[in-house]
Each structure stands twice: as C-alpha cells, then as structure tokens.
Design a protein that fits this description.
globular, 2-C-methyl-D-erythritol 4-phosphate cytidylyltransferase, two-stranded antiparallel sheet, binds cytidine-5'-triphosphate, binds magnesium ion
Length: about 230
C-alpha cells in the first residue's frame, strides 16, 4: 500500500531552550530533521514526504530536499500551525489521492527503524491504525487539581505511545476533520481516531526511538548515534 509520511517540525522547542527549533539542531554533522527523513527513504512503498514547518523555515526545508532526490518519492513542505495537531491538519490537505496509508512521525525522533515502520504499516492496513510504543516503565498516577492522587492504573495495561502512528488515509482524515469540528485537541494522532471509534493497535517498538525534548535527550542522542548506547 502506498505510504505518505507527515513529519511535524513546526514546534518552537520551548523545553529544549535552544535558540532554534529542535528539528534544525545539529546531530553528528546533519540536522535532526535530515536524520529523520532518511529513516523513511528505504521504507517499502514510501511515496510522499510532507514536512510542516513555520514559514521562516520553509526555504531551508526546500534546500534540504535537494539532498534527498529519490525519484520515486515526492517531497513537499507546508506551513505548520499553533498546535502539533494543526500542523498535521495542514499537511493532510496535500496528501496524494493514490496514497492508502498515512504515517505521522515527529521530526525529533531520528532513531526510528525502517523495519518497525513497515511492521506498523502492516497492522494499520489490517485493522485501521498502528502506533509504535513501549510498555510504561514508571507507575503512572492520576491526580486532581490539588495533586492528590486519585487513581493508580494497572501498569501492566499502560503503554507509552511514540511515533510513527500510521492509519488508513480515509480514517485519519475523518478523525482530523471531526476533531476540528468539535474543537478537540489531542496529544497524539491515535486519540483523534479513537474518539471516532477507529481501531488502533499498539506495536511494540524500542526505547532508542526517543523524542528529543530536553537538553539531556540531545546528549543521549549523541551516544546512540556514536553506537555507545
Ligand atoms: N510540532 C509542530 N507544530 C506545533 C508543535 C509541535 O509541528 N505547533 C512538532 C514539533 O516540531 C516536534 C513534534 O511536533 O517535531 C513533537 O512536538 P514537541 O516534542 O512537543 O516539540 P515542540 O513543541 O517544538 O517542543 P516544546 O513542546 O518543548 O515547545
Ligand atoms: Mg510541544
């Protein structure tokens, strides 16, 4: 099934506290976004790569694309929005008609393995959606406004959702349109699909697929890149 990947890269990177957005930070001689794009180039049936970035970074992305001239893949950059969800919504508007599966993958997860992307595609083709994740390692507490603990969900049933999150195209578009109509803003893509009754399965990934969020994550990323982790 032909695959498009949407890579949201329009965040401001507040928690990192750098002077440029995270996808453009350098990691082993290339920017983080370049690493991430390259992870999709040898995925089976990859057909289109769409990056959402803030308008002042669009020229930079256009010039990045020149390093990736796979004839069979089309590259497009679109302007992002004020929330991750709106960035992805904008990217969904340019997905090609012939595409059957759409993956969403954070620009700041440069260590995703191609074989896992393919495994997730197979699950999405079969059931509707697939999400890469790992079993929760910490006990998760639910708290009220006063931080009193109100519940301790059974950890054996809790997974940490990562990306990619991959869906049948029509299902994802329907979920995004419905969220927009209802003013629902979620923290991932699957939650939008879940709320319209779509079936999404967890696909076990690995802990190297970290999201570069805080300065410490950049240090860990350098270790992973140098094969020290
Ligand atoms: N993202 C986006 N548009 C937004 C917000 C986030 O495209 N309005 C992207 C980020 O660029 C990142 C991914 O979504 O690749 C995951 O978001 P996150 O790690 O939270 O990045 P930031 O929002 O940039 O960081 P912070 O929340 O610390 O400001
Ligand atoms: Mg954010």
């Amino acid at each position: 099934a032909k695959l498009s990947v949407i890579i949201p890269a329009a965040g401001s990177g507040e928690r990192m506290g750098a002077d440029i957005p995270k996808p453009f930070l350098e990691l082993g001689g290339r920017c983080i976004l370049e690493h991430t794009i390259s992870r999709f180039l040898n995925v089976r049936d990859i057909h289109q790569i769409v990056i959402a970035a803030s308008s002042n970074y669009l020229p930079r992305i256009e010039s990045l694309f020149k390093n990736f001239e796979e004839a069979s893949v089309s590259y497009l950059a679109v302007e992002g929005g004020s929330e991750r969800q709106y960035s992805i919504y904008n990217a969904l508007q340019v997905i090609k008609d012939e595409v059957e599966l759409v993956a969403v993958h954070d620009a700041v997860r440069p260590f995703i393995r191609s074989s896992l992307i393919e495994k997730c595609c197979e699950v999405a083709s079969k059931v509707g959606g697939g999400v890469i994740g790992v079993p929760a390692k910490d006990t998760i507490k639910q708290v009220d406004e006063g931080r009193n603990i109100t519940a301790t969900p059974d950890r054996s049933k809790l997974w940490q959702a990562q990306t990619p999150q991959i869906f049948q195209k029509e299902l994802l578009i329907k979920a995004y349109n419905s969220a927009l109509a209802d003013d629902f803003v979620g923290t991932d893509d699957a939650s939008l699909v879940e709320r319209i009754g779509g079936n999404v399965q967890m696909v076990e990934g690995d802990r190297k697929n970290l999201k570069i969020t805080y300065p410490i994550d950049l240090k860990v990323a350098e270790l992973i890149l140098n094969n020290q982790l």
